[in-house]
Design brief:
6-stranded antiparallel sheet, Jelly Rolls, 301 residues, alpha+beta, 4-stranded antiparallel sheet, 10 helices, 2 domains, Arc Repressor Mutant, subunit A
Length: 301
């Protein structure tokens, strides 16, 4: 569950209405209005629970800095799924009204237990390399849920909203299972969870340089292709992109919390020069390292 004071705020975004929070619905809802759009590139979203976002009117939304190549763009009848506690960055270029449906971990675990689709850190709700989807069945369920949540003449009961929430959660888990099965079929084999953790630890321990694939594959005596494919299926991105994400996270921390020069920070996260670091940072977040540092310092003042 999420409390009213826990609803994450975006700059320039106003809360219009909410439902289900005081009534303890398994999926509560908030309506948001951004008269001038929004940009969370400098201060990314990090939701305390899983969130399903649905555009109601206005500007389409673009996700930036995912490390997955081209930015994701929401389609007119699409929706997005934001895994809990993951930093995500979005831009809406003009006025937009949207809804957030808040899905608690406990509720999702209860549903996943019924379907044997366990949700955990090693087996998350959705990979973070992709968060925007088009699914007519899910969109219909979300539309119905929103319509009933704010019905004034015939308010829904808690039991009704629990039943509707169960359908949404089941669809989420079934959708995730379909993707996982497709990834497993394409790979032909998988890495064990301990192998994935060891690779991640090694990449983070060597964040100040680019780790070669042969270093990782030699750990387990498997081919480069097998390791890269299996790691991508487990994490949602290949080892190089995952390490790049961690480099950028480390850079953000250093820019916001230290007085180190940009050249020093670039070297700390594996770049030989400030120029290459600046280009990589701008591609990831849409702003330069210097602009990011100034924005973070202003927010702290």
């Amino acid at each position: 569950m999420i409390a009213l004071d826990e609803l994450p705020k975006r700059e320039g975004v106003e809360l219009v209405n909410c439902a289900g929070i005081s009534s303890s619905w398994p999926i509560s809802v908030a309506l948001w209005d951004a008269p001038n759009g929004f940009n969370t590139s400098a201060r990314p979203d990090q939701q305390p629970c899983h969130v399903i976002a649905l555009r109601l009117s206005g500007s389409l939304v673009q996700r930036i800095g995912s490390g997955a190549g081209k930015p994701e763009r929401l389609r007119p009848h699409g929706f997005s799924i934001h895994p809990a506690r993951q930093e995500l960055r979005f831009v809406a270029s003009s006025a937009i009204r949207f809804a957030h449906l808040y899905v608690g971990d406990r509720f999702l675990r209860d549903i996943s237990g019924i379907t044997a689709q366990a949700v955990s850190e090693d087996n998350p709700l959705v990979p973070t390399d992709r968060v925007m989807y088009v699914d007519a069945e899910m969109s219909g369920q979300l539309d119905s849920y929103l319509r009933r949540a704010f019905e004034q003449r015939d308010p829904p009961t808690k039991l009704e909203m629990e039943s509707r929430a169960n359908l949404i959660a089941l669809r989420l888990l079934r959708y995730r299972a379909t993707r996982s099965q497709a990834a497993a079929r394409s790979s032909g084999s998988e890495l064990a969870p301990w192998q994935v953790r060891r690779i991640c630890s090694y990449l983070e321990e060597n964040i100040n340089r680019t780790v070669r694939l042969d270093e990782l594959s030699d750990m387990f005596g498997i081919s480069h292709e097998h390791l890269c494919r299996a790691f991508h299926n487990a994490i949602g991105k290949p080892p190089g992109q995952w390490q790049l994400q961690k480099r950028m996270e480390a850079a953000c921390h250093l820019l916001a919390s230290s007085e180190a020069t940009l050249t020093s920070i670039a070297q700390d996260v594996g770049y030989t020069g400030q120029s290459a670091f600046g280009n990589a940072f701008r591609e990831a977040f849409g702003v330069s390292p210097g602009q990011y540092r100034r924005t973070m310092r202003q927010d702290l003042d």
